[in-house]
């Protein structure tokens, strides 16, 4: 029997998007629908997480339209999907609450809420689907919404950034289509489980292996573009600066991770189960990923150190941080069969690499969305994020400052925050690989250490310039004294406020924004202290990602498959 | 024979698309992207095999004749619909770029990036009279 | 292209302003164009509806029907102008503000999405997976005889409204630029 909880995240996001269109006539109703939709999304993801991860890790397939695999579209919820969905739900909820006070009234009524939830639907679909072409479709849903959201203010910078973003992603979509077509012609299927099964036993299914290598490389390039890894990072800084802050939080926190997820899903689940997994033919992907990750870490770090505004700094930092996420994937893939003790069991290095990437991705999603939202709050209060015009804000807005500090420290990797454990696992993957004699692992370790130093440099720089020291001229004019919350000293914040309206409304909006920031900061501390939970979930997810056999047998389990006769079409 | 012709056509289309994407004029770039995604669609159709009768409607009437693979055609339909939307967006975007910058030359736009580097403050501000 | 757009926009507005509301449509098109459009638009609309109705098991469907419908409107727009299309043909109250018409199109778009999503959700209530479809055969109907009612048609209808609404919104917004 099909369990609707698998498809629920997609449906909730879609329904919320449609409902926010229906309630467009009333701004309050629309905002309430949107926030409730975010809460509902979080709730169904929690239920799914409980079902798939907490009550014994399982793989739950869902046959959309009651068609059996591999003929219909199959959704598959396993620990990896559930982990990514959890990440999306946390960041999405924070962003939707923040956005409902940050984006101006007109923009909200026009398109902000529907687009935001369509983007979340695309993200959820991409995490859940077990069909290659369906993955393409969800990518497009997600990207289409994000194009318009990047273009949201449609000013000079925004149009230019969006042009860059749109053209690159359209080309990537065409390339992805070509790769999918090629894989279909080669393997005769689009279902990921079926493809994994056929690649594992090519002789029985008459599959020619050679073309899949090139086609897989095309897919790798496409996913790397979505993840914004060097050398496919060109669109990142401009697009992240152009989009409204809550959208940037989701773009950097979640949408980027869709690219990473796709790399994990295809290269660790589908292709890794292939007959060539243990031969040299596919070994080139690991080093290439590691190389791209290393280049990202260096490029992003150096770029971030050189930027003179908070948004730009954070955007370049995203390029660097995604390098930290991809690095363990590359290292793990370079020596997949090395055995290491991790999370209470003997696991392969590939699994450790995936777990490290996931924990780091979780950390980056929380920390970076917090930092981007904080930068948005600065914009709403002070009216600028230029480093040379800010200063001394720690005394004026202590809560924002404290949240920013926690986010920054988590990015650096200071215990007991999540970031520490993320970095620890990344380094652990590299050292294990080095101990196992994998060539180049030492270089990866060195690059990661260098990147960590660069992270310290730019986070410190941002913190010093924005929050420490004497208040700058701009800060003195806009915030003559400490901001005290709703109703007190209200007129202080109105000057730079983009929310308009009376000082009370502005204050209330700011209170909501600051609460969101604090909540995210508490998440970072909380998940850091209770890190076993995150690491266990990541270990389950990594096991699910590398266990091709389990994935295939769950999808083709005759007990769950719908009977031969599906519905009409 | 058909496959050679199609291979040639695909080659020409991809070449043309790539050439246009590398032009300075944004409109041409959009044309190039459109051509590339259309040639991806043609490629997808050819991946389903070229022989056989129409898969829907005529199937069953012609006895032993094998139908063409209908899946790729369904995929291409989906891809065409998506391409339709994205092309419309890209064209409107081109128009907005022209309105905002007064040029659709990629080089000029790129130069603006250097000149406008100190415009960072305005980046997140809503723009009056922006697109409705 | 942007220049051409702007030019077309002003050319339309000007004669309307001169000739007043009595004429109701664009003068600067030829008789041939106007006559051809009068003849072809009903045919296009009929074809669109036919494609929509047979889409669930024959070539056709909501999307292509909607695109054809929108094409018919585009023809009217090109030959007779925006004002004629919105106030005379569709009977929308757009006297003061062209954005009013776009508001209607948006509602059509929304309604289409609601229908499409709801048609997918209904099977969940009966314990089937999302988007499961069913077919009912009605026999012995007067005049018609045998008829096939497919639940997929509801989804097609939703798609149809969504796409028509979306395209008309684009036409309304870009056409008034």
From TrEMBL, chain A:
Major localisation:
membrane
* InterPro entries found in the cross-reference section: CPA3_Na-H_Antiporter_D (IPR050586), NADH_UbQ_OxRdtase (IPR003918), ND/Mrp_TM (IPR001750)
Q: Spell out the subcellular localization from the entry.
A: Cell membrane
Q: Which keywords does UniProt give here?
A: Cell membrane, Lyase, Membrane, Transmembrane, Transmembrane helix
Task: Spell out where the chain crosses the membrane.
Answer: 6-25, 32-49, 69-98, 110-129, 135-153, 165-185, 205-225, 258-276, 282-302, 314-335, 341-362, 399-426, 438-459, 510-535
The UniProt entry, under PANTHER family, shows: NA(+)_H(+) ANTIPORTER SUBUNIT D1 (PTHR42703:SF1), NADH DEHYDROGENASE (PTHR42703)
Protein name according to UniProt: Formate hydrogenlyase subunit 3/multisubunit Na+/H+ antiporter, MnhD subunit
Record organism:
Candidatus Halobonum tyrrellensis G22
UniProtKB/TrEMBL annotation, chain B:
* One matching Pfam family: Oxidored_q2
Q: Quote the subcellular location field of this record.
A: Cell membrane
The record's GO CC annotations read:
plasma membrane
Query: Where do the coiled-coil regions begin and end?
Result: none
Residue ranges of the TM segments:
6-22, 29-51, 71-93
Where does the source fall among the domains of life?
Answer: Archaea
Keyword set includes RNA-binding: no
- According to its UniProt record, where is this protein mainly located? membrane
Cite the PANTHER family for this sequence. Answer: ANTIPORTER SUBUNIT MNHC2-RELATED (PTHR34583:SF2)
- What's this protein's name? NADH-ubiquinone oxidoreductase chain 4L
UniProtKB/TrEMBL annotation, chain C:
- According to the record, the residues making up region (Disordered) are 1-22
Q: How does it sit in the membrane?
A: Multi-pass membrane protein
Gene Ontology cellular component list: plasma membrane
| Pfam families (UniProt xref) | MnhB
In this chain the Na+/H+ antiporter MnhB subunit-related protein domain maps to 32-169
| Keywords associated with the record | Cell membrane, Membrane, Transmembrane, Transmembrane helix
Major site of localization recorded for this protein? membrane
Enumerate the subcellular locations listed in this protein's record, separating them with semicolons. Cell membrane
**Membrane-spanning regions, if any?**
31-53, 60-84, 104-128, 149-171
Composition bias (Low complexity) maps to: 1-12
This one is known as Multisubunit na+/h+ antiporter, mnhb subunit
- Lineage, top ranks: Archaea, Methanobacteriati, Methanobacteriota, Stenosarchaea group, Halobacteria
